Amino acid sequence: MESWKNYQAQAKSMQDRVILVTGAGQGIGAMAAVELAKLGATVILVGRNEKKLSRTYDAIESIGGPQPAAIPMDLAKVGEAELTQMGVLIQKEFGRLDGILHCANGFNHLSPLTNQKLDEWVDMFRVNVAAPFAMTRALLPLLQTAPDAAVLVIGESHGFEPRAYWGGFSVSKSAQQNWVQIAASEWDKFSNLRINLLVPGPIQSPFRLATHPAESKDTLPETSAIMPAILYWLGQASQGQSGQTLFFNKK
Questions:
Q1: 243: burial class by Cβ within 10 Å (0-12, 13-18, 19+)?
Q2: Per residue in 201-221, pLDDT tens?
Q3: Is the pTM of this model over 0.90?
Q4: What are the distances in angstroms from CA 162 to CA 115, 170, 172?
Q5: All domains of the chain, ordered by start, with CATH?
Q6: Which Pfam family is one of those matched by this entry (predicted)?
Q7: Which of 44, 101, 165, 170 is deepest in the core (most CB within 10 A)?
Q8: CB of 130 closer than 8 Å to CB of 184
Q9: Could you give the CA distance from residue 65 to residue 232 in angstroms, rounded to a whole number?
C-alpha cells in the first residue's frame, strides 16, 4: 500500500493552518473537518444545510479543536460576488488560508440519458467542477501567500468508469481531472502551492450507501479509512506533488 494511504499524521501537524472544507455537513467532508481540527487546524465549514453544518461545528467544539467558522452556501446557486466576498471575509477574520478540501457532491438521481434534463446537468456541473474552480480562483491570492498551501479535490470513480444511468454526474466528475491538471500546470511557478484529485472509490460513505443500496457495506472500507490520505495530501508531507489523480480503493 502506498505510504499516503496509511499516513500517520503527527499531533498538531495542522497547527495554525486554516483549511476550508466544502460539503462539510456530512460524510467525508464532515469527518475530515473534525480530523483536521484534531490536528490543530482552524476549519472553515462550507455547505448548503445549516443544521448539518452546525452538527460538524459542535463536533469540533466537543473535541476542543480551534473554533471553526461556518459559511452556509449552495454551490448550485453561488455567484461570483459571493465567492469574492468569501475571500474578503477569510482575509479579515483569519488573515490566511492554507488549504481547500473540495468534498461537495452534486448528484440528482440515476436515470437513462433520455430522462435527464438540462437543468440537472447544469446543477451537477456547477457543484462538481464549476463552483469549486471559481471558489479556488477567488481564494487563490490567499493561497499564494501561504507558506505551504494545498487544494485537494475529492473525485468519484464513476468519473473514470462511465456506466449506464450515471449520465451528467459521471460526465461532470470526469471534468475534475482536467481542471486539476490544468491548474497544476499553471501553478508550476508557485513552489508553495499544489492541487491534486483524490478518488476514494467504494467506501462506506453516505453517498455510496445511497446509490448502491444492495451492496453489502461490510465489504467496503469505512469512511475513516480515507482520512490518512486526506491528511497527507492537505499537509506538508505532500509538498512538491501536484496534478496527480490518486485512487484510494480502486476495484
A1: middle
A2: 887 777 776 777 666 667 777
A3: yes
A4: 17, 6, 11
A5: 3-247 (3.40.50.720)
A6: adh_short
A7: 101
A8: no
A9: 19
